[in-house]
Amino acid sequence: MDQIILRSAAGPLSGSVTPPPDKSISHRALFFAALNRGRTVLQNISIAADPLATRNLLESLGYGFVQEGGALVKAAGAAHQYAAHQYAVHGELSLHCGNSGTTARLACGFLTGERGTFVLIGDDSLSIRPMERVAAPLREMGGVVATTDGRMPVRVDASHPVSDRVMLMEAASAQVHGALFLAGLRSKGGVLIRRTKPMRDHTIRLAGAFGLETPYTDDNGMPIDEVVAATIDRDVELRIPGDLSSAAFFVVAALIVPDSDITITGVGLNPTRIAFLEALREMGAKVHWHATGDDAEPVGEIHVQHSGMMRGIDLGERVHVGTVAQMMDELPLLALVGSQVAGTTTVRGAEELRVKESDRIAATARLMRSLGVVVTELPDGFEVTGPQEVVGGGAIDHEGDHRLAMVAAVAALIARAPVTIPDPDVAAVSYPGFWTQLEAIAPGVIKGAV
Ligand code: S3P
Predict the structure, then answer these.
(1) Residue 447: its pLDDT value, please?
(2) Residue 326: CB within 6 Å of ligand 1?
(3) Is the peptide bond prior to 153 cis by the omega test (within 30 degrees of 0)?
(4) Residue of 133, 195, 200 with the most ligand 1 atoms within 8 Å of its CB, for mutation
(5) Model confidence over 372-383: pLDDT tens digits?
(6) Which of 141, 311, 404, 443 has its CA 20 to 30 A from that of 335?
């Protein structure tokens, strides 16, 4: 599809939506499955482009996954033999990470435990994203990881496993934490990782599902995780929950389209991921959630209703408790919500947004402006005062960023004039099936697709 034209919702949104499988958990489940000498059965693994990049990378290394019914299975077997074989064949292996920052960062850590020399590359957007954040601490651990002026290509020469037990104080992101964790599992001595701010904890939960305990000590409220070198050898079956960051698009859609009332099912409700829902509730949203099960990760339902006039929120004060970091992927949506509520919404401490798939601070402000909404860019966030009308009436530019394309689609539901979204397939980076689900929950909004 070249483009899609969306008109505003003709009536309330109703029904239920099951979001696609969680991307963060899928990446990690694939890496742990590769390390597992036992059999791993992954139910509901993501087929979005990003986790597929991780699967492709692991398959290039010789780790075999097969589809059995609805599940992706990695058979039992000593994983390192595959890699040794690949190394003998290729000498140096070039690995393409597509658009996926999580693939690239986690792979840097994982590859330190492989045998061989690897060169990580990515698409145009990934190629300009910072890689030293993960390369530097891995080098500190003894890994041989070299970036190209801080970016890709990244060369990981992993013929020597990382050694020594090192205290790393600056693991600033969940991707970096995951990389160090994966490196630690195949290091000589293990690694101590200090989490410098609250972050999603999927790596630790998945390690637990694969039989690994991660003891931690509390360092002034921040955990220091103790990762010891370990062999994973057990049969594991896991079901990946739905992705809360994907569900967030429909949560916001229901909040802003009058009289809407929808239920989101099978969604992951990990406490380190629900900060966005908590912020919405504080803004006056009628949004409720409850867990219905827990299989390594809590999973459950979200019920959301159109919420009348909500109020702005100041997230500037929360920088230090991590709330902003824990809703990083949902922040562009908050710019849209902020434009529909009374008063000012302020986001600070979100400079990480500038190095996502796009400079998401600048690109969000530009996107909203093209929809007729004023969002003020701040160095580390943004400010928006509502209520404002979403005008629409032309083509937006999502700048190749999947999340911005979907923000524009949600905004289009309340726009005065139709909104044209070029290259809508970009949504499949995280949300295959997004447009079909949008049409199901808001019949008639898709005016045309070419
Ligand atoms: C992710 C962590 C977050 C998030 C990204 C996925 C992960 O980034 O924005 O989409 O799976 O670890 P940080 O590494 O900046 O926390």
Answers:
(1) 87
(2) no
(3) yes
(4) 200
(5) 999 999 999 999
(6) 443
